[in-house]
Amino acid sequence: MRNIVRIASLFVMVMVLGGCSGVLGLLTGFNPGVSTVVVDDTGSKGISEIDIVFTNAGPALDAVAYAVVLSNGTSLSYASDAVIYEDSVDLKAGGTQTVSVNRELIDEFMAESQETVSDGNYYVGVILDPLSRVNDEDRADNQAVSQGEFNFTN
Fold first, then answer.
1. How many angstroms separate the CA atoms of 131 and 66, rounded?
2. How far apart are CA 29 and CA 91, in angstroms?
3. Fewest C-beta atoms under 10 Å: which of 94, 111, 114, 136?
4. By residue range, what is the domain housing residue 126?
5. Which residues contact 142 (CB under 8 A, 6 or more apart)?
6. What's the total number of domains in the chain?
7. C-alpha 36: how far from its chain's center?
8. What average pLDDT score do residues 12-18 get?
9. Looking at the structure, do residues 15 and 38 belong to the same domain, yes or no?
10. Does 91 lie in the same domain as 36?
């Protein structure tokens, strides 16, 4: 009987703290990811738009954080790469979601965050759930990087 009470208490606590999606995460597991990063660098300041395709093989997720970074290589690091934009995305169950980030949004974010980046050529990467807040079954697909380097000018 005590075990049933403990399980019921845990269920109620997860509902209160994590909402229904927290319960679904315990029962079915989440699997969001990033599949594609396409960069348009035809603007006068180099990178002018970044199109990102997110995937979700699990139940719906609301407001999953992501970061767009500039990196000197294809290995991405939220801690050491230059973060040029951050936002969140709602992911439908079993679907894809495309997000476009234009240069105006990047410039506004960088001004607010006081992030500085030297002019140069960089790989453009996207890190989904950079602080590991989602109970994700497979974190290997939470990053994607551009096919080559792109010019970034302040």
1. 9
2. 14
3. 114
4. 31-152
5. 32, 33, 34, 127, 128, 129, 136
6. 2
7. 12
8. 39
9. no
10. yes
